[in-house]
């Protein structure tokens, strides 16, 4: 496996740092866009800077993992609306005597 050119390494590092700042600090005062948009922006910058090709980016998408994450989010929303987390918190605090 050949090493990438220094230009690609620098541009890829810039894209990663931008993503990392937006992922770790989602409420940056001057740019409150959140983690999701920060992730998409980082991916777009990797393609725009030609660090990876669009075909490589498309090949990196794992639909089974995305389906699992989407299903987990849907279930957690329904559990939250049914106050299941509140009742579990009460149950666990009762069991722990505190």
From TrEMBL:
InterPro entries: Cit_transptr-like_dom. It is a multi-pass membrane protein. Its main location: membrane. GO terms for biological process: transmembrane transport. It holds the Pfam family CitMHS. Residues 20-98 form the Citrate transporter-like domain. It is found in: Cell membrane. The chain crosses the membrane at residues 9-27, 33-52, 59-79. Keywords: Cell membrane, Membrane, Transmembrane, Transmembrane helix, Transport. It comes from the Eukaryota. The keyword Membrane applies. The keyword Transcription regulation does not apply. This is Citrate transporter-like domain-containing protein. GO terms for cellular component: plasma membrane.
